[in-house]
Description:
Blueprint: H1 6-16, H2 20-29, H3 34-43, H4 46-52, E1 59-67, E2 70-78, H5 81-84, H6 87-102, H7 108-112, E3 115-116, E4 119-120, H8 121-132, E5 137-145, E6 150-156, E7 162-170, H9 173-193, H10 205-229, H11 247-263, H12 271-285, H13 288-293, H14 308-318, E8 323-332, H15 344-352
Antiparallel strand pairs: 1-2, 2-5, 3-4, 6-7, 7-8
Helix pairs in contact: 1-2, 1-3, 2-3, 3-4, 4-8, 9-14, 11-12
Amino acid sequence: MANFGPKDIKKLREMTDAGMMDCKKALTEADGDMDKAVEWLRDQGIGAAAKKASKVAAEGSIAVKVEGNKAVVIEVNSQTDFVAQNEKFQNILAQIADHAYANSLADADAINASEINGQAFSEFMAGNIATIGENLVVRRAGLLEADETSAVNGYLHANKQIGVIVEAKCDSAETAAKIQPALKSVAMHASAMSPSTLSYKDFDPAFVAAETQGRIVAIEKENEELVRLGKPLKNVPQYVSMSQLTDEVIAAAEEEMKKELAAEGKPEKIWDKILPGKVARFILDNTTLDQEQCLLDQKFVMDDSKTVAQFIEEEAKKAGGTAEITNFIRLEVGEGIEVEEEDFAAEVAAQMA
């Protein structure tokens, strides 16, 4: 019978930050002796790994793997950029990407809960942490798996700090095969333009409302400065997203345009030639949020005469079919991580007090 219980495992875990199974194994090897268990973890490199695991890992690299109808993107963090560029780190990153791809692991939780090379992933990471000498974290990951009428592709930026994978639904397997190179161009676009979502349909109404008010106030303040400089004023939008432009809103705007045309003395018989352009301009002026944050509505970086959605539509037409981007995942190293700046002088002063 083991000379320890759940409370001992919990205590050892709190002392060392080692994994639960590692703590259980250490106490088994030490016959329940807490000090010997800590020493066993240290000898295995797990104690050192646990200590390093308390350090914030905000640097790192991205890996992208695309083959056939499957694509994965992985973010693995380290504490320093120096280690992230290390060949050993890059080999670990590639190994994790291959593992995620081969086992269709959809996110970081699935990776961290998996087994790799016959051992728990936590043990695999602990061993690599001890070897590298810094905390390593599989922070985020994404997986896209396409059926026979869908296509996937991806792009890894040269500095390995940004990775994107993209999926498009097509009318046929033939179109999917032909459209794949264009998806790499879309992934490159997303790398550069940082879209936060696929479509305006994904926005929360409260978020759109807050953005509307904020943008109106910002433009009004900017116009105050333009007045002072004697420069043309910017249009103050009523809306910022297509999600706000209901049929009623468009109809009301069109009625206002007709009144303007009448006031300008334009013959009614030519209004149908003028109105489409004015309506298009109204939509453009009142969807700035979509144009900034929605992949499908952004101007395509390689040809800003069209949106990303229009680019894919045209490429699919050239291939003799139809295609629509249905998903993308963009990861950039360190997004959202807050690193507390250390005040070395204050730390020394506190120790001397």
